[in-house]
Amino acid sequence: MIYQPESTINPERLRPLQRGITVYTGPMYSGKTTALLRTLERYTIAGINSILFSPAKDDRYSDSEVVTHSKKSHPAVKINNAEEIFSYLDSETQEPFVIGIDEAMMFDSSLINVCSNLRRLGYPVFLSCCDMDVFLNPFKLKDWEEGVNESTIGDLLAIANNVVKVTAICRFNENGHICGNEASYTRLKEGIDEAEFLKGVVVGSDVYEAVCDLHHPFIK
Ligand SMILES: [Zn+2]
C-alpha cells in the first residue's frame, strides 16, 4: 500500500513549516536507503502521507517496493523518469504530503528541476543516492552525454538544502585483517576486471565494496 491512513494535517500549515530538499548520500552499503526509509516512517507514525519513488531501472528486488541491504522493505512506485512524479500528486487534496526518491543517481537530469519544482510547491523532498562512481567521479545522470548534457548527481547536491553524508565500514582485507575505518568511497572488488565492468559484462551489487581512502585504488 502506497498511501498511508488518512492524514488530518492541514497542508497549509505543513508546507511553510517543512520544505526543502534533503539528500542522504555516500558509498554502497552505507545505509542511505535505510536513512531515507527512517525519515519517511517518522511521517507515517505522525499520520502524514508520503510516497516513495524508485527508478524502474533498479530492478534488483521487486516492482512495488524498495528493499535495503538489511532486507527492510517499503512500498515504492517505480518510474522511468523523474517528471512522472507529478502524475502521482493530487493537486486538490495536496496528497501525498512528503516525497521520497531512492537511488536518485539512476534518474535522468530532469530530476534536478523536478526536485526544485517540488520544493517550490512546498513538498519536503528526501532522496538517497551514491555520490561518486567507482572512479571517484560524481555519478553521471542517466542522460549524461559528453559536451551535450553533463549533469551529474553533484548538481542535485548543489541545489539541496541539506546533504547528509553517510559512511559504511571499510571491509578491505589486508593480510587477513578487516580494515574497519569509516568508508566514504565505492570501489570494484579486487579481481573484478575494470574493462569488463565498463562494458557492462559484470553487473550487480556484489562487484562493489565500500572502502576508506587508504584502500581505494584511485586515492594515492
Ligand atoms: Zn580501509
Summarize the structure.
This protein is of the alpha/beta class and 220 residues long.
Task: Write up what this structure looks like.
By secondary structure, this protein is of the alpha/beta class. It folds into two domains: 11-166, Rossmann fold (3-Layer(aba) Sandwich); 167-220, Wheat Germ Agglutinin (Isolectin 2), domain 1 (2-Layer Sandwich). It has five helices and 14 strands. The protein is globular. β6 (98-101), α3 (110-120) and β7 form a beta-alpha-beta unit. The longest helix is centred in the N-terminal third of the chain and has 14 residues, at 32-45. Mean pLDDT is 87; it is low at 1-5.
Number of domains: 2
Please write the string of helix (H) and strand (E) elements: HEHEEEEEHEHEEEEEEHE
Q: What is the tally of beta strands? A: 14
Tell me the major beta sheet: 6 strands, parallel
Question: What is the assigned CATH homologous superfamily of the largest domain?
Answer: P-loop containing nucleotide triphosphate hydrolases
CATH architecture label name of the largest domain: 3-Layer(aba) Sandwich
List low-pLDDT spans: 1-5
SSE-based structural type: alpha/beta
Strand content: 15-25%
Q: Overall 3D geometry?
A: globular
> Major sheet: order of its strands?
5-2-6-7-1-8
Estimate the helix proportion, in percent: 10-25%
What's the mean pLDDT score? 87
How far is the first residue's CA from the last residue's CA? 48 Å
Predict the CATH topology of the largest domain: Rossmann fold
Instruction: Using the CA coordinates, give the radius of gyration.
Output: 18 Å
Specify the number of helices.
Answer: 5
Instruction: Report the top-level CATH class of the largest domain.
Output: Alpha Beta
Q: Which hetero ligands occur in this complex?
A: zinc ion
